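Q: For a teaching handout, I want to show students what a protein-ligand complex looks like in token form. Below are the inputs, and the small molecule is zinc ion. Please produce the holo structure.
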Amino acid sequence: MPEADQLQRFLLEKLGVRGEMVRLEASWRAVLERHSYPETIRQPLGEALVSAMLLSATLKFTGSLTLQARGDGPLRTLIAQATHDRTLRGLARWSEPLPQTASLGDLLGPAQLVMTIEPEDGQSYQGVVPIQGDSLAMAIGHYFDLSEQLPTRLWLAIGDGAAFGLLLQRMPEQDSEDEDAWDRCQLLADTLNSTEMLHQPFHTLLHRLFHTEQVRVFESDPVAFRCNCSRTRIGSTLRAIGAADLDALIAERGSVDVTCEFCNREYRFDSVDVSELFASSIPTTAPSQRQ
Ligand SMILES: [Zn+2]
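A: Here is the structure, written as tokens, with zinc ion included.
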């Protein structure tokens, strides 16, 4: 049986290459169930979720990694977010009519890929790269080439019930005698087809690719869908709208209703809730600033 909702890291020590494989099933369905995504949108959404999970797992940090594609095409927004504890969420917004068979380029139009890394404490980091080529995997590979980070490549396969991704990354400071190792690993990974990726167990795939190499396999991590939205977070978004606009909404409808687009949870703020939002945000003067 292929692994479901697991992330597996591995190491090709002699080749100076590390890798990860992830297969999403329930977590992928959980994202798909939230909105009625057309077939053409499912592919890039799955690719973004798998990519965000793979990339976040290359980092030693506590926080989240978000991939966002912004374009002018019918696929207006594509967002996927993964956290250090292997949870993910994501969504896509699109406008009709959608082309029947569409490449990522057709869907997004001229677009940018934004990668945001937000540690729980510390500076957040954002990188932007134009999306060239017709897949998210290519765009991400291009991003790593441009950003002088470790060479990194992704192979993705998206199906109805599962989404799979393989990541290979060249390790730093390799004075490996085996100069061709990195290229060879990529050529091997290029031979995987979607059916294998979606349906074969990780160890079968690893054996198929690297049976002549020593592969160190780490314990796999469970992956799950989880949205970290909360009443507090929604409240601070509302505060940014301003008291006047919120009061106008309440006068008109009796309450301000917000639905989280990632998980469809509903939040209702009545007039008392709204006044509390602003009561708790009165700025206080820090002692050092007092004259
Ligand atoms: Zn939510």
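A: Two things your students might notice: The first strand starts at residue 6 and ends at 12. The chain has two domains: 6-225, 231-282.
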